[in-house]
Amino acid sequence: MAIDFSWEGARSSSSSVLQDLPYTIFQPLYIYGPYTGKDYMPFFLDRLLRNRPVPIPAPGIQLTSLSHVEDVASLLAKVRGLHLAHAMC
């Protein structure tokens, strides 16, 4: 019996596992606050406060959001065990 080690094989086997498990995917983009280990906020804030241009990846039309670490933690704590949140991507 041959084992499929390709990306497609890994993706299809993980998909079949996920079908049987309750899951929810969260992708907060820019988390700020204490202990986040991110260093992008001082850069952006410094540029904004000094009225300097803020670089935006091309094409520059995408929306984004900033989330405080306590808000993200609160969201994750509230969704645990919530039946309506299962299989949300």
Could you characterize what this model shows?
The chain has one domain (22-85). The chain has a two-stranded parallel sheet with strand order 1-2. It is elongated. The protein has helices spanning 7-19, 40-49, 69-79, and strands at 30-32, 66-68. It is built from 3 helices and 2 strands; from the N terminus they run H-E-H-E-H. By secondary structure, the chain is mainly α. Helix 2 links the parallel strand 1 (30-32) and strand 2.
Give the DSSP E fraction (strand runs of 2 or more residues).
5-15%
Average residue-wise pLDDT:
75
Q: Largest beta sheet: what is the strand line-up? A: 1-2
Task: Give, in order, the helices and strands.
Answer: HEHEH
What composes the largest sheet? 2 strands, parallel
Shape by Cα distribution: elongated
Distance between the termini: 34 Å
The total count of strands amounts to 2
Helical percentage: 25-40%
Strand pairing plus helix content: what structural class?
A: mainly alpha
How large is the radius of gyration?
A: 19 Å
Q: Unreliable stretches, pLDDT < 50, 5 or more residues?
A: none
What count of domains describes the coordinates? 1
Count of discrete alpha- or pi-helical segments spanning 4 or more residues: 3
Q: Concise description?
A:
It is built from three helices and two strands; from the N terminus they run αβαβα. It has helices at residues 7-19, 40-49, 69-79, and strands at 30-32, 66-68. Helix 2 (40-49) links the parallel strand 1 (30-32) and strand 2 (66-68).
